[in-house]
Structure formats: structure tokens, C-alpha cells
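EI: anyone free to look at a 334-residue chain?
SC: sure, send it
EI:
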Amino acid sequence: MSAPSRRQVESTRSIVEWYFETHHGHPGDVGMVGTFCEPRAVGHFAVERAAVERGESAALFRLFVTVAMFQRLRDALVMNILRSISARDATELTSVDALLALSSTSTCRLPTSNNDLIQTCDLTKNEKKQGACSVAPQVPCHLKRHTELLRRYGHFGKVPTSAALVIGEDGGDMETLRARVFSSEADPLARAQGLQESLSRVWRVSEKISSMYLSLVSAPCMGLAEAPWGKGLDWTWFVVVDRNVDLFLESIGYSGAGTYAARREFIRNIAERIDLHAMNRSLPSYHPRLVQQAMFLFMSASNRRAATDDCSLEGAKACGSCPRMRRERCPLAA
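SC: here you go
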């Protein structure tokens, strides 16, 4: 892959400077740890920040399931859905023990194996938006109830149970999964890739979702005093490439391959040329996930409109003082 051009680097640097001036560490910094600790954002799915910092497996699993909800819809819509779910249901959807208990007592055999859940279960919704399937249509399965609660496409109700089954098959908790990967791999990068592969066994968990989660629990400066999984693995591997990041890459003339790997590597290469420590002394010099976060948030018009401190609230006044290379690709430019 060719190296990023000087103009591509400078255009990205301008966006990163904007991000640290206006959004980093603020409530509107969607996708950072704070989003998932705030009941005003995710309702009863909110996780205790201190429990995540301590590496408590129950908190880490709750965070994982909640992160997995943020796909295929605008963030604001996902948060509306999560806030609509009761405390009892939210606890059930984010507890390994509760989900495994439901699976083991189900009158349908499929929810007891992640492989069967993925390969054979045909969970969907009928015309009344009720959970349905053809394998056991008369069984009042918890998966059918979950897909109704989560108000997404029909098979999305598999996600929490699939996550619990993967963790259960890997020893029963998040820390056991981490320890297994760490013991089998000595290289920090191989560990990062191993964790990503393990979590991507979960239904509907892609490289994007696994990278989002793993960056929160391993990378510094994501909203935790100390990331519980930060030692011993290469957290710079975790970059979240979504539609907004793609829009930014398009705006700076990215012409590389469309694969996730190629786009991740391009972002990491740009991040090598942007010294974050020079912008903020509390940051490491190289942090691809934060550079990517700046790309994401800058191009996310819906998240910026919902923020209380975005520069767009000042209208033409703010745009008039904005550097041209930033203003010309801003989705909210006046």
C-alpha cells in the first residue's frame, strides 16, 4: 500500500485538532467509554465505570453486549431502543449466567450451542413484528422475545445469547477468555488478533464491533483511568471502520482496497504521522483509535447535531474561522 500523501495527513491532522478542541472527553464523544456508563445514553444497559476498570467479568460482558447493539442504525436510534428496555430485561440481556440459564432450560435444543444457533436457528420476525422461526414455531423461545425487545431485524435477537455461549464455551467469563488468548500467544499483536477472532465468533459481531469493544478495554485515554486489558497486547490494532470513517477517507481521496484490513492499515499509517502528544500532553504520540474517532465524529452529522458543544451550533461564525481543508469536507458547514 502506498503511504498517505502529505495532503491526506494534513487534512486528517486538522480534523484531529478539531476533535480535541471540541469533543474529546465531552458527553457528545459517542463511542467512547463514557457513552456506555451513562444511563442518559443507554438506559439500564449502563455499566459501572469502576467495575470495568477493575476488569470485572460481569461488567466487561455487559459492556460487550451493549457495544454490539451499535450497528446498522444511527447511534441516536440505538440509544432510544436501549433506553426503552426495562431494568429487568436489560439485566437478562447482558448477563452470561442469565442467558446460559435460559439456553439450558429452553424447550428448543438450538440455543444450547453457538454453532447450532448460527447455522440452524432461523430466527426472524413475522408480519406482526413478533419473533418467529420455522424450526420450532410453537416454542415460546427467549430468542423470539429478545428480538422483539431489541426492535431490529429479526435475527438480531441471537446476539446476546450467542455472546454468552461463546464466553461459556471459552471458560465462562471474559477474564478466562482473555487469559486463554494471552497464554496461547506471546506476541502482543497476535494477542490482539486472537481476541478479535474469539469475539468475532459471536453472531453479528464483525471486525468493526470487536475492534470497538476491545479498544475500550485495552487502549489508553478512552475514558478509563486504566484499561483492564491494556498490558501485554498491541491495542493499536483496534481501529473502528464504519460508514462515517469511510466518508472521511473518501473525502481525502483514499484509493486503496476496500477491505477492512486495507482501510485499517491506511488509518494506522496516517496516525503514525500525527503526534497526539504534541496536541495533548496526556496522550501517547501514536493512537490510531483516537485518530479514527476524530474521523468518525467529524463526519457523523447526527451525533454532532445531538451534541451540546459542537461548533455547528455557532453557525456561520464558526465556519468562517475554520481552516479551508476542514470546512470543505464538513457535513454541517453553514
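EI: DSSP finds 21 helices and two strands in the chain.
SC: 👍
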